[in-house]
Amino acid sequence: MDSELFERAPIPKAYFSLAMPVVLSMLVTLVYNMVDTYFIAHTGDTNMVAGVSLTAPVFTVMIALGDIFGLGGSSVISRLFGQHRFADGKRLSVFCFYAAILTGILIVVLGLVFRDQMLTLLGATSDTWVPASEFYTLIIIGSPFIIVSMTPTNMLRTEGHAVQSMIGSIAGTAINVVLNPLFIHVFGWGAAGSAGATVIANILTDAYFVWFLLKRSPNLSIDPRLMFRKDDAPRTTTDMTADAMTADASTAHTRPTRGRLDITGAEIRDILVIGIPSAITNLTQSVGIVMMNLFLLPYGTDTVAAMGIALKVVMIAVLVFVGFAFGAQPLIGYNYGARNMVRLAGIMRFAYAFLCSFALVMTVVLSVFDRQLMRFFIADETIITLGAGILRVQLLSLVCVAIVMVTTCTFQSTGKALGAFLLSIGRQGVILAVTLFIGSRVAGYNGVIAAQALADLVTAVLAVVLFVVMLPELRGSRGISSASSS
Description:
This is MATE family efflux transporter. With 486 residues, the chain is an all-alpha fold. 80% of the residues lie in helices and 0% in strands. It folds into two domains: 1-229, no CATH class; 275-477, no CATH class. It has helices at 3-7, 11-41, 46-82, 86-113, 115-122, 129-141, 143-155, 162-186, 190-215, 237-245, 265-296, 301-327, 329-337, 341-368, 370-377, 381-395, 398-414, 417-449, 451-470, 477-483. Helix 11 packs antiparallel against helix 12 (301-327). The protein is globular, with a radius of gyration of 23 Å. The protein starts with a helix and ends with a helix.
């Protein structure tokens, strides 16, 4: 455990040490998604392309389920590490690992039993049924490996192993990129080949993480024996004192007797109340795109295509924001758990200032090169013109997106479940639905393309209000001024 990095290193150094590897992982994943689409599209089989596209949300759901124990667990564990309760953190890391496995097994059973119903729900037709079924079936079979991979990816950063977490993610992506063309084009396995490459890459990624947890991690584990009580000794004074210092008293627990599971309901709740909003954040991204497309359809398919490409460009910036914001989650959680509010205030000042400045730069750069960016994806001048206009509108709210991302991460890191949940369902969920409905009726097409920017603005205002209300300990001028010198 690199306590120096979390407790005493200069804030910019600590922040970037933890966040940069996450940003790089995000960018590599973005490249993979584009390359994967290219390999499928290069087959020239439109039914295969459509079938894989229809079932792609299943993979998104698995990532969201993995985040329940990955992000939820890392939030709780980082706060425990801040209190120097390393044994408790280690014990919960084991629980998160095996809970993810059990969740994956449940998905396998349910996914295969209800395969036909799910394919129908996803929109598979007689033309797309075969490729959709091939992709869906293999992805479902591999779901335990996909879901589990998200757990150590996030938890390793609680110990300061951000680079090792990045290595696992990038290695898995690289393997996937190599296997995809081999399985799809050389072996001729089509949609099944794409899914198989994804599953194999996740299996190898999991193998790397298991090796690292067994050989290199002193405070995290996968040893199932740690989840069970070894003796009936009462809790120590140190344990009780640590609980008294805990920001969220629900992390305190009474250990069960010998032979019983040593994980309390309160601990599971603490993981779920942070992990579930994290999962919802992933799911609402897909929901937001679907809603946007539905409101654009009356204006023609060209507008849908233009919006789709514009959102891909915006997603580049958003993924960088996510990496910088959530990469610092262990740093925020550790100092909140340690009740080091002076340093935490400094971290928050730096995070908001850096990401908002970065958002302004990205707004200017992407706006200047809007047509060139659109032309990279498509040659149709009509769609390029439409998309450039849409892109400029979407970019107006990048600073708001940065504020929302940092605040959401802070709530997740500090165990503020309600704040994290409200922001999770807001930006691309409930608030977007409202702005789409009002915008389409007040301003028609222009109201639809401006809806996301308006939703970002409203969500950013909500984020500021929630931050002030839910983290009053960071409002003091004394803490903030002192933090600037740390």
